[in-house]
Recover the amino acids of this structure.
């Protein structure tokens, strides 16, 4: 028969294609995996087998954890291209990769997933790309704030890891379809949040055939600045509540504009974001009043940097029971730790020594406490005549001595030795392994 | 060593099987003759496989050697040409699937092997890593220990048939399905598959296949049975058709010296029981003997190719019993008798 060389995967349609409610790539991949009765990792592996990733490693585990393939990255672009070949479905709309040349990639995507309960309850069980955009706080359809993905079921109902289903619209912990386990009612969204969500939605709805280039975006931004801010980038920045130099640098193409920054300018001027990216200034609403106050950021705090204040702060910090790190203090004073070290070497050394001493004391305290707990557990087990090994002792003590906690590992070894427990030759004390010895 | 052949080989000496002989035999074996009975069966079958037909399970049955494999081949060719445009437009679609049900010699075979065969034809990836996901009371849960179970494969198959947009699923040698099921009706399983996926099932097999339908009382609204009828000696038109088939086969005869089979068409019809497949196999054996005799025909070749009287009797009895069984169930055999049909035709003409 003539039906050889079919596509690797089913040609599932991308939900909400061509609209602001378009499905995210994350949701599409998970839906596709469910349709094939595979988990997404197997889907990735099959994809990689058929279309090897030459330019970059796919690292399916990493991808599944962060889903950064939805962003503009070599891995994301390579994955998108291969998935399109494997499904024969154009998927450009499901990812933010196509906005890579006009919007900066940092903080573009969320780390914690959110959803609109009303959208999922309405029966359209797919996760929107809009929800994954960091700048979006509200659902423009139901005008409510997006709800963070949290399982509301008690821990007893949690599924074991192999039983969990990887789906963007269902709770992975308890399996509740549409996150019905979380009964939190979403708060009503503000007018500004809804407007921003609508703007991002209109951006996502731009057809993939429309080529978005840096030049077009800069033309649009220049048009907005000229028409509404008298051609003054600094005024545009300050009026929109962003750092004064930002718009200037964007127009100089010194760095790529951020989506929240562009949204702030559109919000102030009433300009349409999608039109701006296409190189035009289209006013879609009345301009908003000037942003009340510029939030002082690290850039401004630097201006009030005083040597005396910082020196005193370092000395005071060294006196505290648990001093903060030099890096944390540097952030507090709007600078970096190298500068602090070069300007105040003695104070910094004193702080480092004080912190080291405090840390050591804290660890010793934790060690003593753990030894006491483990020893008590050993005695208890001995009294009841039960088997004594690292596993039973940890269980009885309620403290796990895993490899990332060397203090507890040391405490467990110490407690076992105090109880004349002799571990078998070659046996370690890793809690993941079961070792046996003789207790006398 | 002298490799020359003696051109006047006697019947007692076994001649060598050369590649030329093998090729000529293969060519004759591949000859497909479109004859009236084949056309009738195809004409009955193809309309049932159109998208708007309500029939979703079609059973194609017929006597041993009547030409069911040729019919299946012709059906597949016709369907492939129908679905070519669809397959070109949608690279994910597998509109037509053909599998052969197998008897694996296992004591209690199940559907698993059949499902796997169909999924392989559907080019389903990662068959060994499938995981069944069940939704119960609004909760989704994976069942990790169900890899490659019948339930998992069934779910995968339903998804694959639906999402690969399969229109027709042809299962050859479907009589083997009788042994499947382990307590459940194979027909129920297949009908439910057709209902849930929208694919039309064509089951091709011998008269035994009728048990699949009748033993479960499943001759229902959406099932049709097509009997690929043999040629009968008491019908003059059938005798003429067989002559025509013979003359077509003689034109493709693999030797230069062509025996006059048309002259003995009635006798050949009798020994082949009017089954074109049996006739073809008889002629294939005779032609093989002639090819081995350097192309020189001898009438004993035909005599040796004819089935023994005992075997002939067994086949005839089997065919007659099957035909009796299938008579009332086949497509076209309605509750109207011939006089009622004549009256209906007259009224409609008026």
């Amino acid at each position: 028969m003539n039906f050889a060389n079919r596509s690797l995967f089913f040609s599932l349609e991308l939900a909400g294609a061509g609209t602001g409610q378009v499905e995210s790539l994350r949701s599409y991949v998970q839906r596709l995996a469910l349709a094939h009765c595979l988990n997404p990792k197997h889907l990735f592996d099959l994809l990689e087998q058929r279309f090897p990733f030459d330019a970059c490693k796919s690292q399916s585990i990493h991808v599944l954890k962060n889903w950064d393939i939805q962003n503009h990255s070599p891995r994301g672009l390579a994955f998108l291209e291969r998935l399109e070949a494997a499904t024969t479905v154009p998927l450009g709309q499901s990812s933010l990769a196509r906005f890579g040349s006009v919007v900066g990639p940092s903080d573009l995507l969320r780390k914690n997933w959110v959803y609109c309960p009303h959208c999922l309850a309405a029966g359209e069980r797919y996760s929107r790309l809009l929800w994954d955009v960091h700048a979006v706080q509200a659902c423009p359809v139901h005008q409510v704030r997006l709800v963070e993905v949290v399982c509301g079921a008690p821990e007893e109902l949690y599924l074991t890891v192999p039983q969990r289903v990887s789906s963007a619209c269902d709770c992975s912990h308890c399996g509740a379809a549409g996150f019905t386990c979380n009964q939190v009612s979403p708060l009503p969204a503000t007018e500004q949040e809804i407007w921003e969500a609508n703007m991002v939605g209109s951006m996502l709805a731009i057809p993939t055939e429309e080529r978005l280039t840096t030049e077009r975006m800069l033309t649009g931004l220049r048009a907005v600045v000229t028409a509404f801010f008298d051609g003054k980038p600094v005024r545009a920045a300050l009026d929109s509540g962003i750092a004064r130099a930002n718009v200037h640098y964007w127009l100089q193409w010194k760095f790529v504009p951020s989506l929240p920054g562009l949204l702030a300018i559109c919000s102030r001027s009433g300009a349409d974001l999608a039109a701006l990216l296409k190189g035009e200034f289209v006013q879609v609403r009345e301009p908003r009043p000037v942003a009340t106050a510029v939030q002082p950021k690290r850039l401004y705090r630097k201006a009030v940097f005083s040597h005396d204040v910082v020196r005193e702060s370092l000395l005071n910090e060294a006196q505290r029971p648990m001093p903060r790190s030099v890096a944390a203090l540097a952030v507090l004073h709007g600078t970096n730790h190298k500068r602090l070290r070069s300007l105040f070497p003695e104070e910094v050394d004193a702080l480092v020594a004080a912190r080291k001493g405090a840390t050591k004391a804290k660890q010793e305290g934790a060690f003593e406490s753990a030894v006491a707990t483990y020893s008590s557990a050993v005695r208890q087990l001995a009294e009841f005549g039960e088997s004594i090994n690292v596993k039973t002792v940890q269980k009885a003590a309620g403290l796990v001595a895993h490899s990332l906690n060397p203090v507890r590992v040391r405490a467990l070894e110490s407690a076992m030795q105090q109880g004349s427990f002799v571990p078998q030759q070659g046996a370690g004390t890793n809690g993941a392994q079961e070792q046996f010895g003789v207790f006398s | 060593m002298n490799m020359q052949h003696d051109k006047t080989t006697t019947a007692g000496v076994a001649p060598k099987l050369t590649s030329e002989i093998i090729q000529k035999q293969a060519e004759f074996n591949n000859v497909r003759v479109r004859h009236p009975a084949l056309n009738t069966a195809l004409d009955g079958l193809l309309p049932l496989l159109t998208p708007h037909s309500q029939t979703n399970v079609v059973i194609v049955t017929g006597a041993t050697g009547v030409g069911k494999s040729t019919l299946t081949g012709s059906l597949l060719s016709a369907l492939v040409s129908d679905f070519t445009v669809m397959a070109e437009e949608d690279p994910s679609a597998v509109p037509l699937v053909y599998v052969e049900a197998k008897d694996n010699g296992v004591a209690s075979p199940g559907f698993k092997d059949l499902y796997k065969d169909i999924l392989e034809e559907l080019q389903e990836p990662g068959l060994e890593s499938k995981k069944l996901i069940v939704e119960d009371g609004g909760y989704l849960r994976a069942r990790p220990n169900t890899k490659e179970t019948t339930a998992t494969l069934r779910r995968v198959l339903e998804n694959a048939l639906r999402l690969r947009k399969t229109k027709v699923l042809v299962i050859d040698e479907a009589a083997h399905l009788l042994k499947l099921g382990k307590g459940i009706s194979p027909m129920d399983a297949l009908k439910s598959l057709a209902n849930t996926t929208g694919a039309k099932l064509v089951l091709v097999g011998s008269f035994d296949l009728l048990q699949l339908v009748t033993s479960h009382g499943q001759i229902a609204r959406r099932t049709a049975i097509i009997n690929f009828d043999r040629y009968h000696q008491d019908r003059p038109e059938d005798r003429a058709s067989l002559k025509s088939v013979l003359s077509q086969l003689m034109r493709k005869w693999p030797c230069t010296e062509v025996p006059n089979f048309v002259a003995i068409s009635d006798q050949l019809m009798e020994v082949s029981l009017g089954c074109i497949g049996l006739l073809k196999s008889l002629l294939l054996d005779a032609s093989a003997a002639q090819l081995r005799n350097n192309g020189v025909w001898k009438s004993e070749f035909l005599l040796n190719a004819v089935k023994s009287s005992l075997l002939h009797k067994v086949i005839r009895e089997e065919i007659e019993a099957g035909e009796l069984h299938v008579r009332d169930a086949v497509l076209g055999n309605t509750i109207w008798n011939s006089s009622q049909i004549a009256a209906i035709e007259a009224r409609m003409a008026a």
Notes: Chain A touches chain B through 36 residues (CB under 8 Å). The radius of gyration of chain A is 28 Å. Residues 296-304, 422-440 of chain A have pLDDT under 50 and may be disordered.
